[in-house]
TrEMBL record:
Gene3D superfamilies on file: 1.10.1410.10
Species, as recorded: Lophotis ruficrista
PANTHER family: POLY A POLYMERASE CID PAP -RELATED, SPECKLE TARGETED PIP5K1A-REGULATED POLY(A) POLYMERASE
Organism ancestry: Eukaryota, Metazoa, Chordata, Craniata, Vertebrata
Descriptive protein name: STPAP polymerase
Single GO biological process annotation from the record: RNA 3'-end processing
Gene giving rise to this polypeptide: Tut1
Keyword Hydrolase among UniProt keywords: no
Keywords: Magnesium, Metal-binding, Transferase
Amino acid sequence: RLAVLNTRFLQLCAEADERVRPLVYAVRLWAKQQSLAGNPSGGGPLLNNYALTLLVLFFLQTRSPPVLPTVARLRDLAGDEDRAVVGGWDCSFPRDAASLEPSANAQSPCSLLAEFFHVFGDFDFPGQVISLREGRALPLPPPPAPEAGEGLKLGPLNLQDPFELSHNVAANVNEKTASRFGCCCRAAAKYCRSLQYRRKSSKGRAWGLTRLFQPGAVEPGAGNAGAFLISIPLDAAGGSQRLCREPGGRGPWFWEACAAIAFVLRDVLKCSCAAGKLPAAPGEESEL
C-alpha cells in the first residue's frame, strides 16, 4: 500500500503544476546520459528514477515562491476521506489536485532546469538529509520520526522517503556516484550559463537542450564528445537502394525512417507534428 500511495503522490504533484512532468523527464534523461542513473540488475550504486523524481520535487518545494507544497502542508490539506495510515506511517494527502492553490512561481521549465543544476552542484549531500515532508534540508542526525522503529540509514546521499521516514531512497548510492552527481550538476549549471545553451550554433554544432542531453561532459567547448546519435535505417550497405526498391517506396524501411525523423522533430526539437499528404514515390532512377 505504501508503493500505491507513493505513486498517487507523484501523480498529484504532476497534476498540480504543468512544469513538473517535463522537468522530471529532463532530469532523468540527463542523468541517464551522464551514466548517473539506471536500474542495474545487481542494485548497484546508480540513482534510480524514483530518487531522481523526488530530488526534482524537493527542488520545486524550495523555490521562492514554491512550485509545490511540502508533504506536511499536503497532510494539513487532506480531508477526512484522504486520511491514510500504512504501517504506522501517516500517508495523508489530498487526492484531487484541484484542492491545491496554484503556484505563484512563474519561472519557465528551462529556467528551473538550470537552477536545479546550480542548487545540487553545491549541495552538501553527506551532511544533510533531504526532506520532502519538511521541504528543506535537515541537519544530521535528522530528528527521530515518532512512527519510526529504526533510524534512517545515512550515507553519501540522504534522501528521505516522503512517507516512510526511516527509508533512505538513495541508500545504495556510494560516495563516488554522489560526488559525480554533484560534479555533473556543476558542469551542467556552467553550460546553462553559456551562449551555447541560449543561442543556435553558427557552426552547426549541437546547442541548447540537445547538447545538454548528450552523453558525457556538457561544458562549453567540449567539442563533439558524446555526439547525439539517432539511428535512421539508411546505411551504406544498400539501405537506401533497398528502400527505393520497395513497392511504392513505402515499405517497412520507409516507415522506420519516418519514425526516426518524427522522433527528432517531436521529442528532441519539440516541434508540433501533424499528418500530411504522402510524398510522391521515388522513381527507379531517382536518388534518395
